[in-house]
Amino acid sequence: MNRRRADFTSSLYLGMRHASTELPGWSALTTGRPAALGLPPVADGVAKALAELQGTEAVLLARSTLHAFADCLEVLAGEQTGIVLDVAAYPIARWAVRRAAGMGRPVLRIPHHDLGSLAAALDRLHARGLRPLVVADGVCGGCGKPFPLATTASRLPAKNGLLLLDDTQSLGLFGERPGPGHPFGDGGGGSLRLAGAKGPVVLVSSLAKAFGAPIAAISGPAVLTEKIRKHGGSAMHASPPSTVDIAAAAHALRLNRVEGNALRERLATRIRLFRRACGEQGLPLSGGLFPVQATPPVAAPRGKRLLDRLAAAGIDAFLRRDCRGGTALTLVITATHTTGEITETAAVLSAAWNREAERED
User: How far apart are CA 170 and CA 136, in angstroms?
Assistant: First the structure.
């Protein structure tokens, strides 16, 4: 019997999958009504539990982050608003900003995590009498580094500004008070919990990664989420999240309460093992203690040869552009990977990398 392929392409970081046997039954997938006319009853419990987890006043569920960001920018970026965009923000956020720009909103693009450029952009907009709306990722999926949330949030009240974060990569992974024994922190509540910050912040998060549920949430001050609920276009013109998606989210939040911290510690152990094994064989990886691990930048032909070598060994990985604009061979570590898969993949990848380096010398 052939052994299973080692899949390093899935972003189900904690391994949550929500089989049909784990969820309650359903009589219909959707209500047939737009979201503005109401969500399935179980949605209220999910929203309240998620708000408590993230440390926000309220949560509004959405079908996807595309719907959520479109609604947020439509409602929060009024005529007297200027947008400050981190250039490495996830494409879905950038698409929504592009739409806002098409509606006449000025957009200032700043380098990735550059606090000096951020301060200058806030000053420029404030001098023009515009309210700043900063758009960025809570944790960068490219370098694995958190956005300087606390510093940014502390600067916004003086400018009457607002921070809109894509917290997809952080939710379910990062939480309060990280330390040596629990490097991701406690609870998995995301960026606000990690930073221990308060302030004018709205989070858009997909639960499809760490929590494995294909549903999104808009989290923040109740006055703003209610405004988005009433005036966001997708709430009027699109169906709400499906009954199954909401049930999966409820199941994920229950699992997180019971075993989330243990899963995160298991994941951290596997990431460290992979990084150490590659490093010992001469291959430094970027990503820090984040599930997405990448080689140094490679040209496309070399990257394709590396992928072929991994595939021949039964290992699935992928090439992608990082937050600095380079292309790297990338593997996603999850809590479901065995230590054997981790060590074998590190050995194959490192050997292939070193052979390619010798070939180019």
Answer: 13
